[in-house]
Design brief:
Blueprint (H helix, E strand, L loop, with lengths): L8 E4 L10 H11 L8 E6 L5 E8 L2 E8 L16 E3 L1 H8 L20
Parallel strand pairs: 1-2
Antiparallel strand pairs: 1-5, 2-3, 3-4
Length: 118
């Protein structure tokens, strides 16, 4: 399940992707177009032209996961395709995206990380 997965980074493929591609086709995009390792502990997120469907490629231990999400109403707030390099976002921004929000939330509280004082 996606909520229990361990990942360090989330990459969005800017613009639209032909979602007829499955695991092998998306892994080739990650490797050859993005010049990233599809076996890394990352999520690679792709969106269709209408912005109502997502596919997420994720490697775990000994195989790939391919998640698919289709909205029945509305669209995802997706980055423009002006730049073909993938957009690296935080897990928090990824959650916003899945919840139908923009990844640039100006009203959200700033993320706070605890400092250890020795």
């Amino acid at each position: 399940m996606l909520t229990n997965t361990q990942f360090q980074r989330v990459y969005l493929a800017r613009g639209s992707t032909d979602l007829r591609k499955s695991i092998d086709g998306l892994a080739v995009i990650v490797k050859e177009c993005f010049e990233l390792d599809p076996f890394s502990p990352s999520l690679f997120v792709f969106c269709n032209r209408k912005r109502d469907k997502l596919k997420i490629l994720h490697w775990e231990n000994n195989g790939f996961w391919l998640y698919y999400r289709r909205l029945e109403k509305g669209t995802f707030h997706w980055p423009s395709e002006n730049d073909k390099t993938p957009k690296n976002i935080s897990p928090r921004q990824f959650r916003w995206l899945l919840d139908g929000l923009s990844i640039e939330q100006k009203q959200a509280h700033q993320e706070v990380k605890a400092r250890i004082i020795l």
